[in-house]
Amino acid sequence: SQIRYSGPAELARYATAERIAPTEKPDMRLYDGILLLSLILSNVVSASAVEPEKSNGARGEYRVVEGFPKLSPGLTLGAVSAVATNSRGDIFAFHRGPLPILVLDGDGKVVRTFGEGMFTSAHGLRIDSQDNIWVTDNANHTVVKFAHDGTVLMSLGEKNVAGEDVSHFNKPTDIDFAVNGDIFISDGYGNSRVVKFDKTGKFLTAWGTKGSGPGQFNLPHAVRLDSKGNVYVADRENDRIQVFSADGEFIRQFGGFAPFGMYITSDQTLFVADGRANRVLKMTLDGTVLASWGKTGTEPGNFQLPHGLTVARDGSVLVTEITSKRLQKFVVGPK
User: Fold this and answer.
1) pTM metric for this prediction
2) How many other CB atoms sit within 10 Å of the CB of residue 114?
């Protein structure tokens, strides 16, 4: 199935089915039994001939995993803003509560926490190729890098000091990394730019101003790189994603949705949390929608302000919510 966005109206929904037909009509007098068998097999084949979308090996329709996560007694989630997984399959959730960074195992059981007392407003969380954890605080204007054990390794920006220069942010939102370790930060609620640093934290460049033209932003809310090193920026209030080179040269844009969160898988599939329509979109990198699920609601599988998301190694999709204050997990296939 494929859905393609074609304008500012709602996404058109349609499905196509390929059917396999026999190339020759058998002799009914000689092959009645064979014909009956072939008709049965033809129906089976045609029922499965539409191959569902793929991402990291997953196929079919997404369904919510009820009872996930398994929170410890007394642990209550605040607004959950971001989620990521490391190379070992551990899940890291960032929320606006007393224990802001939760580390969960693959089954959703909380195994440890860290970051208590460090943040004013949890926002973005990503994990780099060395399993370091990076977070953004969109109220105290900082970006912090942690080792796997929670030790602080680096801090960018000046706490509680907003600015728009090489050493300050104004409410930064998200972070991602190039293969060589370069750091890209979307900045953010106060500024309207993307800032690039090298792996040591040295400022390299920045681009973007407030507006709606190419290369301008109205709340750059998330940032992600594809396998070619192109930079995808979720231009939230302009209802679009803009694509740039690693040096900030505008390449293209596509939209028709409110991109609050983004994730690009290893097979170059784009997932978007549409926080305005309360749904998740699965897309190609040119904006073709492959799947969509969710609507406004508190029921499992629906959303109230989906904000961040990631795709685990097994293809499951983890989605955070601000208003419903929860983390949901989606997998492919029947229960």
Assistant:
1) 0.82
2) 17
